[in-house]
Amino acid sequence: FYGIFNGSGFSTSKVTTGRTDGPAALILGPGDQPHIVYTIARPTGDGGCGDSEGLARTGTYHATMVDGKWVSERVTKTVGLPSLALDPGSGRVHVIVGNTVYTKEPSRAWASARLPAGVEAPEMRVDPATGRLLLVYIRSSPDGESDGLFAVTSP
Hints:
By secondary structure, the protein is mainly β. Strands 3-4-5-6 form a four-stranded antiparallel sheet, with no helix packed on it. A four-stranded antiparallel sheet has the order 7-8-9-10, with no helix packed on it. Strands 11-12-13 form a three-stranded antiparallel sheet, with no helix packed on it. The mean pLDDT is 85. The protein has one helix and 13 strands.
């Protein structure tokens, strides 16, 4: 659910139907337009083995409100803890899942770029003045030891 405080309580709307998993991330674009990223994980336990609909929906999704209604689309079939950023000047949306950054320009399909191996806990923000993307992440070596905290900016 998505809620807006109206001064005395919350008015809510349902973003998606069906099961969702894990935390969601929310950012507000120009005009307080909400953008949400959420995950639908592979079913486990009861219904997992024969749940073809659940398996078909597995992935990470982006939702936003268009003309007062929620519109969701799958960004990737990959699941994990996502990070979400928006360039308010261009309308470009960025989602990180695992070691991949997914970017969507308005009216275009999602494009992806891989980060180096060993990326963990990535977070990102957009500089609103320049539109440049800042990524911060921990990188681990193949033996699991931390190589440190890294920051990368887009060109």
